[in-house]
Amino acid sequence: LDPVTFSNESKAVIDFIADYYENLEKYPVQSTVEPGYLSVMLPESAPYCPEPLQDILEDVSNCIIPGVTHWQSPNFFAYFHANASTAGFLGEMLCSGFNVVGFNWISSPAATELESIVLDWMGKMLKLPSSFLFSGTGGGVLHGSTCEAAVCVLAAARDKALKELGGETRRHSPSNFRLIETSFSTGFSLSPENLRFAIEDDIKSGLVPLFLCATIGTTPSGAVDPIAELGKVAMEFKLWLHIDAAYAGSGRICPELRHYLDGVELANSISMNPHKWFLTNMDCCCLWIKEPKLLVDSLSTDPEILRNNASKSKAVADYKDWQIALSRRFRALKLWVVIRRHGLANLMYHIRSDIAMAKRFEALVGEDERFEIVVPRKFALVCFRLKPKVEEEDLNRKLVEAINSSGRAFMSHAVLSGIYVIRCAIGTTLTQQHHVDALWKLIQDKAQSLLM
Ligand code: PLP
């Protein structure tokens, strides 16, 4: 790694990326390639000799970009966005530049200490109770994804329950994962009555319910589970309550969105993804836990090769014991740069402007009598559909296909209680009002053609 080459080649790649952003709107948002397209474009085996960067970048342009769906396009309205920013990119570069492996404190003290500080900063911005913060009685950690975080707290909850039940004897009990039905009547949020029913049913069958995952901003519809009420049921039956706020958690930096997480003090753990709606490039998931010791009890390893005085002193966090893998990236640098470069003021502005655009889109849908809003909007996700006239089951699916195949926008769908709905998730960093207006015009035009 020669610093001069590093500097020159990095600049070339940055210029390449800047050019990509400059031309982003020229590409079809959803890639149109067929499966296997790349293997016919690239050699069958790896090169023996080094190749010039210029050749590689040419291949990125000619072979890779056609197979990229442009998540950073302002016309990307599918799934939940992965909003990036210059600050997120710079933080990612610093993380990659140092390339440390901060599995324990001694392996790179700054990595651990910055992570703890940034998790407390984030927790304070989200107004989490101090029981989740290092400055209180809990603590936080960065994972790569919400699913990873959920698996870790699930392991902690299981081991806690096993301990309370008397240990190993129960280890071979049948596993007991339940999806609890939601419906239109509750706006697709989890009903405390249904939860209670499911718990009592399991107990009657000799099972031990031990973990409840509630969601703030569900993926299909942005529904919000009633945390305060669910928390009471969870406490009554000694369930570990985890809150998945992957998408909507970022919204809690805005006072007007805070009420959605009322009751958070009843949870044992909570996670959210800054890589969704907090201008932080992939990947970054914050997990806070009230009793980090339970996570460590469940996940820690203590091989001789990693033993050191700092760990022995118990005065430091060894983050390898808060996650599945041993190795870990210096993700905190990225989140730290994002928070510092934007400041709370601009981060709130970002969330609010997405919500304002979603509100306007929702109003436009409401004004067109051919369409209907299917679920009331809470954040920047609008779920809507063309009202089916006769039994035209495929109408909305065809509409999504027509929009996506135009290349001018990309949307996705969900099925709620058997009903196909179109999701319009507003929130890429570059989306502005005129993109949303153009999307609505496109939807109307395609609907017109389909209805003719
Ligand atoms: N939970 C919710 C509510 C989500 O919306 C998503 C993804 O969109 C996930 C979890 C999965 O997150 P991850 O990919 O970080 O595991």
- Helical coverage, percent range: 40-55%
| CATH fold-type name of the domain at 101-329 | Aspartate Aminotransferase, domain 2
Enumerate the strands of the largest sheet in spatial order, edge to edge or round the barrel: 1-5-4-3-2
Let me know the average pLDDT: 95
Question: From the alpha-carbon coordinates, what is the Rg to the nearest angstrom?
Answer: 24 Å
Spell out which ligands are present: pyridoxal-5'-phosphate
Question: What is the general shape?
Answer: globular
Commentary on this structure:
The protein has 452 residues and is α+β, with helices and mostly antiparallel strands. The protein has a domain at 101-329: 3-Layer(aba) Sandwich (Aspartate Aminotransferase, domain 2), CATH 3.40.640. The chain is built from 13 helices and nine strands. The model has no long low-confidence stretch (mean pLDDT 95). Bound molecules: pyridoxal-5'-phosphate (PLP). Residues 80, 145-147, 215, 217-219, 244, 246-247, 273, 285 line the site of pyridoxal-5'-phosphate (PLP).
Could you outline the blueprint of secondary structure elements for this entry?
Elements: H1 3-22, H2 53-64, H3 86-98, H4 109-125, E1 139-143, H5 146-165, H6 192-204, E2 211-215, H7 227-236, E3 240-244, E4 269-272, H8 274-277, E5 285-289, H9 292-299, H10 309-313, H11 331-367, E6 371-375, E7 381-386, H12 395-405, E8 412-416, E9 419-425, H13 433-451
Parallel strand pairs: 2-3, 3-4
Antiparallel strand pairs: 1-5, 4-5, 6-7, 7-9, 8-9
Helix pairs in contact: 3-11, 4-11, 5-9, 11-13, 12-13
The structure holds pyridoxal-5'-phosphate.
